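Methods, example record. To illustrate the input and output format used throughout this study, we show the complete record for Bacterial bifunctional deaminase-reductase C-terminal domain-containing protein. The sequence lines were provided to the predictor; the line carrying structure tokens was produced by it.
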Amino acid sequence: MEQLPEMDRPRVIVSVNASVDGRIAFRRNEPLMREETERAWTALWPASVQGVEAARSEEIMRVHAPQAMLEGSGSLVSDLAGSPERHDVHFDGPAEVLYSDFLPASVRERPGHEKWFTVVDSRGRVHWTMKSQGEYDVLVLVARATPRSYLAYLRAENISYLVAGEERVDLREALRRMRDKLGVNCVVSTAGGGLNGALLRAGLVDAVDLLVCPMAIGGLGTPSIFDGAQLEEHATPTRLKMLSAHVEADGLLRLRYEVDRP
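The corresponding predicted structure is encoded as:
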């Protein structure tokens, strides 16, 4: 195992599947978590993908033992879905209490709990129908601008959340809180381009693990591995150091990179 530097936050591994042109969806505002879209996407991948995906997951678990997965709300709710759902939940207490971290012991100490399914949702868009599954429990990352009604809803549903940032989630601070309050030392981001792009621009990506399908999608604005803000003038791209490359007979590629920091 390569020697990793000491950090004040969890290590972040971006682990996604993409086309050869880096696209991670067919078009904007069509999350792959929609059943019909997921079926169409899966049908295009070579037969070897299941085995390679399983090997990737096993290797990441064995080498890095991540305690959290990371997703953006856009992976769960389309931007075309309109305004966030209103949650008329009564909260009997000072409003400021809502803007403190909520980490109920009943969740952290749940038999079988080992990991967090973490979603960045400063706008309070996701209505949760499942709060835990197997070893995972939901953890929502919110900001001080998140609607009070949504925070009251999360508390009423006993869903854990961390408050980091003002208008939007401060990703670096949120990761620090995950480490300090929950003991999370490694996070695997399976998110879309918006969140992965924000992580990249904030200098929070440490490794990239890609499965590349032999197909091209194209299209201006089609979601890619890293979207978000453009590279600023005079800024330099994030340099990567290749760790390994593997190709299957049916054209599937697995590419592993470490961010090459000075």
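Annotations derived from this record:
The beta strands are 11-19, 68-72, 115-120, 132-133, 136-142, 160-163, 186-189, 207-213, 240-247, 253-259.
Residues 49-64 form the longest helix (16 residues).
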